[in-house]
Amino acid sequence: MRTLKRGSRGNDVMEIQSLLKKIGYSPGLIDGIFGLQTEKAIVQLQRHNGLVADGIIESNTHKVLERFLLGYENYTVKSGDTIFKIAQKYSINLELLLTANFGTNPLALQVGQVIKVPYAFDVVDTNINYTYEIMERDIEGLKSRYPFIEVGVAGKSVLGKNLYTLKLGNGPVKVFYNSVHHGLEWITSPLVMKFVENFAKAYATERPLRMYNLNDIWLNTTIYIMPMVNPDGVDLVLQGLQQTNPFYDELIAWNDGRMNFGEVWQANIRGVDLNHNYDASWQLSKQAEPAYGVNGPGPTRYSGEYPESEPESKAVADFTRHHDFKLVLAFHSQGEEIYWTYQDKTPSQARRIGDVFSQLSGYSLSETTGIASFAGYKDWFIDKYCRPGYTIEVGLGKNPLPISQFSKIYQDNEGVLLAAPIQARS
Ligand SMILES: [Zn+2]
Question: I want to staple 209 with a disulfide (CB 3.0 to 4.6 A). Which of 185, 202, 204, 324 is the partner?
Answer without folding.
Answer: 202
